[in-house]
Amino acid sequence: MRVLDKRTRFNRRNFLKTSAASVAAAGAVSGGMVSMTAMPAWAEGLTAIKPDAAKTLLVMVRDLYPHDRLGDAYYEKALASMDQEAAKDVTLAGQLNEGAVALDAAARKLRNTPYAAIKAEEDRVAVLKSIETTPFFRKVRGDMVVALYNQPEVWAKLGYEGASAEYGGYIHRGFDDLDWIKDA
Amino acid sequence: MVAKFAMDDDSVVVVIGSGAGGGTLANELAQKGVKVVCLEAGGRHEIQDFVNDEWKSFSQISWLDKRTTSGSWRVAKDFPNLPAWIVKAVGGSTVHWAGASLRFQEHEFKTRTTYGAVEGANLLDWPVTLAEMEPYYDKAEFKMGTTGTNGIPRLPGNNNYKVLAAGAKKLGYAEFHTGNMSINSKPRDGRGACQQIGFCFQGCKSGAKWSTLYTEIPKGEATGNLEVRPNSQVLKIEHDAKGKVNAVLYADATGAMHRQKARIVAVAGNSIESPRLLLNSASTMFPDGLANSSGQVGRNYMRHMTGSVYGLFDRPVHMYRGTTMAGIIRDESRFDPRRGFVGGYEMETLSLGVPFMAAFLDPGAWGRDFSSALDAYDHIAGMWLVGEDMPRETNRVTLHATEKDKFGLPIPNVNFDDHPNDIAMRTHAYGRGSAVYDAVGAVRTIHTPPYPSTHNLGTNRMSANARDGVVNKWGQAHDVKNLFVSDGSQFTSGASENPTLTIVALAIRQADYIADQMSKREI
């Protein structure tokens, strides 16, 4: 049956764009540790979300929807869409920046460390659980489940092909090519 | 030649809504020479405007006007302002319907007799029988080109169907196939065959799926007897001193108000807007709302017992390829109270793209349990469970006490609590759905809660006796003889089948009745 190649196709342009972030991604994959001592370039590109908050929020969004196969670039893009909203909405900007501070405070309370510096994912999840009912958490969770999974680049990684009408549908492209069930 | 009728032309039938009920009724009347003005709240988006993109399409065609929810159903928590996932556009919800076209079973027209008194349920027999409906089901299936009828071959099964069918076979189910679908399996009625595009819910890009948008409506317009006015939101139905309706007040796209006179008014705005309109049309003569002497307007809101089961496999499925709902297991739709509930349910193939899977798989969920399911997206098979839910007086559409829409009219609130029968049926259906996938080696199955309602039914129900419901067996208001209800809100009970075929059959039947009554000068 026709399956998809989910490997990332590198070209020079998107490699340059994502290489700084993929260092952090590798850290996230290897042990839940995200080391970002230097200010990442993408965070400086945000307008409403402050750089420190951006670092915290990035780790938060990864923990909300962890896909080890996805580099940070996809999560950053999702956050950037929220930043665009926040740039037009002072209340939202305040909610995000203050929420990130509150998340750090919750992390210090439970683990004596800022959120993004907590090494184990399960410990960070415990912190998130402690703020799960806050409007800040609900806002980030609700917006990110749309923004992360509405990216065609993410679809390709998950094996979803997106629009099909312009390719003539699937009538000649594998709508019934499942071959692992005998007698199907 | 498209007709244009004057606002003060009081000889026209005004049909409110252009979906399965309104669009069909409008065309049927136009074919008989009756002059019809069809007022549609939404815009007119043609096939070329549809997009294969779930969120973009959602914002293009959905009914997004604010609504509120209450009650213990989970939709009220997860989607408090989106009780229903229906369409605001010419063609109504036939733009996004899946195409499943099933006849109700004989006993489903007689639920009170068959099921007996069920505590907490407001069961009532329909004033119509299957035998009376059969000739109209025949006409509806022919009109819509339903597969498995009229010699029309069924659709080929896609990957998602293959998994469902293999599981059904292993469990010993007997009635499973690719369904009775109003989607062309070969060219018919000027429309092509299904190209297995997927995206049936986003508007069919090939036109293979029946929708009033490009069948009934242009056919009606071609007679010169039908004028469709898009972007026309009806705010109030007015009546004369004798209590007969004589005009509707509506707002056009600019917000300008118009009054279209009418000989007859037919309401087909789906089961939230239709009762809302009747309630908002209250007057000195009808203080509780139009056609509401029974107090049943807005009550008995049904939305089908629903839920989904997704099976994760270690081999790929790519469920999204091809027709979304061309696959069904019917064995559980029988009446068999030994299972612990009355009524039955269907299991039908369903797929969502990644964006909607993320939003609807388990609303509010996060963390690895959730994301690991999406990681397996292309290894998932999916089914939708759709069964009969119990009508309850307290499940109802009411006018919001304080919130108003942009025209200053109260917005609707939808209150819903699952009946214990609904919960017992859902539990059973989740179990059988999982068993289907387990039988073919699922590594994990997921039980997804109901989506915002796509099948909205019962809020202006039919009854033999005027005290029990809003309309008679013809969909004619008990209280106002030139006022009709033409959508799923007239359903006395919900049955286990997808409702569109029955809505269309009722609309064809109603058109015969209206034309007959007009010619006899009864209305």
UniProtKB/TrEMBL annotation, chain A:
Keyword annotations of the record: Signal
List the InterPro entries hit by this protein, alphabetically. Answer: TAT_signal (IPR006311), TAT_signal_bac_arc (IPR019546)
- Please name the Pfam families in this protein's record: TAT_signal
Query: Which PROSITE patterns does the entry link to?
Result: TAT
Signal sequence extent: 1-43
- Entry protein name: Twin-arginine translocation signal domain-containing protein
Instruction: Say which species the protein is native to.
Output: Azospirillum melinis
From TrEMBL, chain B:
Source superkingdom: Bacteria
Residues forming the Glucose-methanol-choline oxidoreductase C-terminal domain are: 391-507
Question: Does the keyword Oxidoreductase belong to this entry?
Answer: yes
Q: Which InterPro entries match?
A: FAD/NAD-bd_sf, GMC_OxRdtase_N, GMC_OxRtase_C
Domain Glucose-methanol-choline oxidoreductase N-terminal: residue ranges:
88-305
Record keywords: FAD, Flavoprotein, Oxidoreductase
Family affiliation: Belongs to the GMC oxidoreductase family.
Q: What is this protein identified as?
A: GMC family oxidoreductase
